[in-house]
């Protein structure tokens, strides 16, 4: 029996809000999110997000529009709670896993499910996901120029020093970012 390689799982962690009142900047960030989703589908990656709004939602919808597989990990216990209490969409992923673990618990599952964690903008929740990914030695891709946590990762990583085995890749181009992260993952697996 031949061994079949699993598709890489890419977690996109980022701003649940679009974050810019400047229309040109908001459009630029939307375009980056859409291109990131397209690239993930083109590279035959499985996408995992927090089943949330904002940039992860945009990436998920773009990946699915290109035939990609998207998994959402919800903080909620049920679909009802996901939609009515957390006010999250239920139509941007092919599968939603209802954890009942709240936001922080969901973050741990997101990161542990992913082979590669992509940071896109982000606030305190994304910071939490970054620190989990760094602590667990994940390949981390940072989409530079997207604001928030993404634009502070170099400073944050310097605080950690060399204690952890995570590899952090910085790029402002979605194609280059995913390709470099996949290469880094492949180097670990070889």
Q: Can you walk me through this structure?
A:
By secondary structure, the protein is of the alpha/beta class. The protein has a single domain (9-189), classed as 3-Layer(aba) Sandwich (Rossmann fold), CATH 3.40.50.450. It is 45% helix and 18% strand. It is built from seven helices and seven strands, in the order βαβαβαβαβαβαβα. It has helices at residues 23-42, 54-65, 79-84, 102-113, 124-135, 153-160, 174-189, and strands at residues 9-14, 46-49, 69-74, 95-98, 116-120, 139-143, 167-171. Strands 4-3-2-1-5-6-7 form a seven-stranded parallel sheet, with helices on both faces. Helix 2 (54-65) links the parallel strand 2 (46-49) and strand 3 (69-74). The longest helix is centred in the first third of the chain and has 20 residues, at 23-42. The two termini are 21 Å apart. 43% of the residues are buried. The model has no long low-confidence stretch (mean pLDDT 91).
Largest sheet geometry: 7 strands, parallel
Q: SSE string, helix = H, strand = E?
A: EHEHEHEHEHEHEH
Low-confidence stretches: none
- CATH names the topology as Rossmann fold
Structural class by helix and strand composition: alpha/beta
CATH class: Alpha Beta
Gyration radius, rounded = 16 Å
Provide a quick synopsis of the model:
With 190 residues, the chain is an alpha/beta fold. It has helices at 23-42, 54-65, 79-84, 102-113, 124-135, 153-160, 174-189; strands at residues 9-14, 46-49, 69-74, 95-98, 116-120, 139-143, 167-171.
């Amino acid at each position: 029996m031949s061994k079949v390689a699993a598709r890489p799982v890419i977690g996109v962690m980022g701003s649940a809000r679009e974050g810019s009142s400047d229309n040109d900047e908001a459009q630029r960030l939307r375009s980056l999110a859409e291109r990131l989703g397209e690239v993930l589908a083109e590279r035959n990656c499985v996408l995992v997000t927090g089943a949330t709004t904002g940039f992860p939602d945009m990436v998920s919808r773009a990946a699915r529009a290109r035939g990609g597989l998207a998994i959402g990990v919800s903080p909620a216990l049920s679909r009802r709670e996901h939609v009515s209490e957390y006010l999250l969409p239920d139509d941007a992923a092919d599968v939603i896993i209802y954890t009942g673990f709240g936001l922080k618990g969901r973050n741990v599952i997101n990161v542990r499910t992913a082979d590669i964690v992509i940071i896109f903008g982000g606030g305190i929740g994304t910071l939490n996901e970054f620190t989990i990914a760094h602590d667990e030695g994940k390949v981390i891709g940072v989409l530079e120029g997207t604001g928030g946590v993404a634009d502070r990762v170099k400073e944050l990583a310097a605080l950690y020093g060399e204690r952890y085995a995570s590899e952090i890749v910085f790029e402002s181009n979605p194609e280059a970012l995913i390709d470099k992260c996949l290469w880094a993952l492949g180097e670990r697996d070889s």
